[in-house]
Amino acid sequence: MDILYLLIPLSVLLVFGIIGVFWWALQAGQFDNIEREGERILKGD
Amino acid sequence: MLTYVNGPKHGVEYPPAMNQAASALVARHVPAPPAPVPSPSVGEALPLPRTDWLGQHRGALTVTDDFAVLDDPIEQETFTRALAPLEEGEGDAESVLVVQGMYCAACADTVESVLQHLPGVQRAQVHAATRRLTLRWDPTLTRLSSLARTLGESGYRLLPMQHALSVSERLRETRQALWRLFVAGFCMMQVMMYAWPAYVTAPGEIPPDINQLLRWASWVISLPVVFFASGPFFASAWRDLKHGRVGMDTPVSIGILVTFLVSSAATFDPSGPWGAEVWFDSLTMFVFFLLGGRYLEHKARDRTAGALDGLMNRLPEVCERQKPDGGYESVSLRRLRVGDTVRVQAGQAFPADGELLDGRATVDEALLTGESHPVSLQAGQGVVAGSFNLGGPVRVRIDRIGADTRFAQIVKLMERASTEKPRLAVLADRIAAPFLVFVLLAAAGAGVYWWQIDHTQAFAVAVAVLIVTCPCALSLATPAAMLASAGALARRGVLVRRLQAFETLAGIDAVVFDKTGTLTHDHLTLHKVTTREGASLSNAWALAGALAEGSLHPVSRVIAREAVARQPDLAPLAGHTERAGQGMQALRPDGSWVRLGSAEYCGLPPSMAGEHLPAVHLSDANGWIASFVLQESLRDDAVAAVTALRALGVRTWLLSGDREAAAQQVARVVGVDHVIAGASPEQKLAEITALQARGLKVAMVGDGLNDGPVLARADTSFALGHAAPLAQSQSDFIVQGGKVMDVVNTLAQARATLRTVRQNLAWAAAYNVVSVPLALAGYMPPWLAGLGMAASSLLVIGNALRLARR
Q1: Domain extents in chain A
Q2: Any chain A CB within 8 A of the CB of B175?
Q3: What is the pTM for the complete model shown?
Q4: Which residue has better confidence, B339 or B615?
């Protein structure tokens, strides 16, 4: 059970890491116009 | 220091998704849809420095804390206009601005009350759903920048109403909201994992050290939820606190803080007075649900604002003006002056109202009619700003620019309507405030009561009471529904001048039609001309044309048009006087009078008017000169509309100034229930009053030109067609396409709106009545309370948005 002392803090760090990745994706504009990406397939060019 | 830079952002595309359907319609006729970016050659030819451009073409615009941009006269032109003095001595200005930082309907009150107490502010009206502020202020007493700075101290920012700005601001707000939602959601999932062992094991089964480790981990993960994701709740609650008021977010904020503090105490001091119970899972869950609700609300609100912006965004940023040497230069729209000649390329929108110079053009006037189909125009006919040129390049001479264009009037009308607060909304707001105070007291009472029964339950119950109440649904119920309807109607070419009119229209039981220009086309056609023995036809036309020229009456317009076509040199007449609905009189150079009008007005025997067709007569002191017999044609959908009205249980009247026979004939064909013919404007007014005295709620449908007082007297009114200047229109609804059927559609929409408003209000009331006692009794865990409140708000917004789809 001692491994939990490593794994639980690690999971906390992982959460913050994932939040950081999402922040980057958001600021890069990936979520700005989600609907448009779906419509893109319908456009001819 | 608030500094942001608005540059050409990646992924910003306008109009937003909602208007893409409309754009697609236009695109069907246009090989290349109106591109917001000018072609490279246009860009090179541009004589202005880039910084003079508007919107996304302008490049970087930096707004700093001193709000200097609001005082720039060139910038102000887009969102401010001077008003004629109300009383002597004051010349006010009216500005439309965007308020940033509003989270719910109650914020609108705060902004209004802050602004209204400042010197120089005449009136401030905020619309919560679109975040528009209509500000009436005195430029001699204050500056916009100082108003903005004061409001900034209360936590709201004022921005000029420009699409480019509002787009990038809205984008930033959307990103921020999504960011908070993600943090809350992701942390919630992780906290739930840490909490899970405690739910599935018997007490004492988990070793105490591991249990403590899980609690610490939960605490750490909860920190960003409380201190970052819950920011909007705290910010808004703090703002209300500073103003000594209780707002929508006050109970929520107290709930979040109490839960967090109690759980933290239990984490670090399990043997302390707060017990060993932690609530991190409930806390993160209800924050996530509330933010989820807010986010979807925010999206819905963006769609409404986007619909307005989509309408306003139709004008091009630059246009090609003809230089004196015949070449073309690209100029900013603001440099355009009346009398300029501009060239409009295929697929582009006309920049201003003007007159077509070249042979013929195909134009899409969906802005006016709500229907996207090509209209053919000849040289000399007028084009309106915001309509699209579908054919080849055409030249246009500009008649009206900027705020004088019909386009600007439409936009202004819609903005005005959307900032108005309907009666039902005011009522709901008045109930919401004391209700919140009651909630705070109830939560405190419940906490104290449960403390004596069960320590561990006391916090959960108090927090649940704080979270579960949903006054937001109450406040949103009415404006959200009415605005969604107004947007849906605007897309079909029906403008709503007052949101309040929906309530009146839904309750009407009689529709009174004017005849000419309403059930029949507003343009008559000439049937035949008869002249006195020996009188010359060309002389008759010259006299009639000169008389008719000064009148806006539909019959006069026909006579004037026909006369100019036949007899370019009109007779020299002076001293025109018009008796409304009767005729015109003017004086010849020798002082003798000439009249054009009804047989009675011209002093002719009634037998002259004996035919079924409308006629006007020309006479002078020597008697009859000529008669012009006109014929009118029914509007295509008049019969269908009257039938549909009857199916809706509405009685119909025809109220006409015309002769009995003509009115009866139209009434018979159309199927109107009752006819009142030969009424003067005064009699029309009296007839409407008489109907109202019988207890009927009357909607008047007119052409908006000749029947202003009658339209104003009726309970609610429609102006059909676009003959009348919008700004002077007295009517509540303006049907731009000129289709009678749109009156029926608007009535159906108004009834649906009222039905939705009632559903929303009933839901909000029922929800609160049921959920608060449940929470007080301890049947509602905090997470369920959060879910309930979010779901209730969403239900109200979602129900309202159904109206936008109709």
Answers
A1: 4-42
A2: yes
A3: 0.61
A4: B339
